[in-house]
Amino acid sequence: MLENVIIIGSGPAGFTAALYAARANLKPLLFEGNQPGGQLTITTDVENYPGFVNGIMGPDLMNVFREQAKRFGTRALFENIDKVDFSTRPFKLWSGDKKYESNTVILATGASAKLLGLENEQKLMGHGVSACATCDGYFYKDKKVIVVGGGDSAAEEATFLTKFASEVVLVHRRDELRASKIMQDRVFQNPKISLLWNSSIADFMGDVESGGLKSVKVKNTLDGSISDLKCDGAFIAIGHKPNSSIFVDQIELDKSGYVITKSDSTLTSIPGIFAAGDLQDTVYRQAITAAGSGCMAAMDAEKYLESLH
Ligand code: NAP
Questions:
Q1: Which among 45, 85, 97, 135 is annotated as catalytic?
Q2: Is the distance from CB of 297 to CB of 106 less than 8 angstroms?
Q3: CA-closest residue to ligand 1 atom 37
Q4: What is the pTM of this model?
Q5: Which atom of ligand 1 is nearest the CA belonging to 239?
Q6: Each residue's pLDDT tens digit, 85-123
Q7: Distance between CA 20 and CA 28 in Å, rounded?
Q8: For position 308, what pLDDT does the model report?
Q9: Domain ranges in the chain?
């Protein structure tokens, strides 16, 4: 069956695109992928999504997105698209052996925060461990937190967290920051931030039942020694990775792998393929901005489909 619109991804961008495409009577087909609901499903309270006075849990918010998109006829499949061919029309997509064809495709596969890969990091995610200071910083009023990383993200998150936390320790594996000079200056001049050089995180200590993270085990990268560092929160800020591996050689990506969109639109290098959300956003990376660009992608797709007639 030839589809009007296929949407790959189920975060705020994907489901908003689906909502708008469904209400335009395009009967969109959406693929939820490996992490249904996207990055918000690994956060707890979301307090900065407009419309929810008392905040809402990340997974609950994504259920609302899903239900609203389905109400207007979106078909959402719990399948992962693992291969695409955008070189001929209609565009072709595969989920395992199953092949799908569509006149337009909206790419909304998002980005994933890079994590350290420790077992307890996953267990305590949303319970003291976070990959997003903007989302979770507010919960650390007058608390002690650490930030892991040495780039602009880490410097920015550490600085941002001083609005809430009483103390921020920036833990970096080397003895100099990668962050830009201006961001470094902000860090060094902030009396609430201290630096722990040549240090990496060996483990996160605490458990969900007894209130989450209590401390981290810090490994000195020069001599290998291990020490304990008490903290209430740990923010991992070692970069993000756009989920664009299946689009390599299909559409234009920047050197970091983000899909390039034409300014003020969701148009990619191929007419009929649109991109929305964190997959193409190197700056804002918020649920609300992703939702906004999902809306734009559906409207761009609708306009494109009309031009085919
Ligand atoms: P980044 O520049 O790639 O920096 C990542 C940092 O994390 C590096 O310091 C790296 O250490 C460290 N790191 C990576 N893997 C690690 C691991 N497994 N364990 C411990 N540390 C690890 O990433 P980013 O800071 O997210 O920035 C990405 C891009 O966005 C950059 O171009 C940046 O300029 C830009 N950005 C700009 C702003 C701004 O201007 N306001 C804000 C955020 C991001 P090493 O230094 O040892 O490699």
A1: 135
A2: yes
A3: 152
A4: 0.79
A5: 26
A6: 999 999 999 999 999 999 999 999 999 989 999 999 999
A7: 9
A8: 92
A9: 2-112+240-307, 115-236
Specify whether 254 is catalytic.
no
Residue range 115-236, CATH number: 3.50.50.60
With 0-12 CB in 10 A as exposed, 13-18 as middle and 19+ as buried, what is 71? Answer: exposed
Mean pLDDT of the chain: 96
Query: Do the domains spanning 2-112+240-307 and 115-236 agree at the CATH topology level?
Result: yes
Give tens-digit pLDDT for 117-172: 999 999 999 999 999 898 899 999 999 999 999 999 899 999 999 999 999 999 99
What separation in Å is there between the alpha carbon of 241 and the centre of ligand 1?
11
Helix 287-308 and helix 12-23, axial crossing angle in degrees, nearest 10? 40
Please write the tens of the pLDDT for every residue from 129-144.
999 898 899 999 999 9
Superfamily of domain 2-112+240-307: FAD/NAD(P)-binding domain (3.50.50.60)
Give the pLDDT confidence score for residue 47 in this predicted structure: 85
Give the atom of ligand 1 at the shortest distance from the alpha carbon of 172: 21
- For a ligand 1 pocket test, name from 172, 178, 185 the mutation site with the most ligand atoms within 8 angstroms of its C-beta: 178
Q: Tell me if residue 132 is catalytic.
A: yes
In whole angstroms, give the CA distance from residue 232 to residue 145.
6
Give the pLDDT mean for 276-299.
Answer: 96
- Ligand 1 centroid from CA 118, angstroms: 19
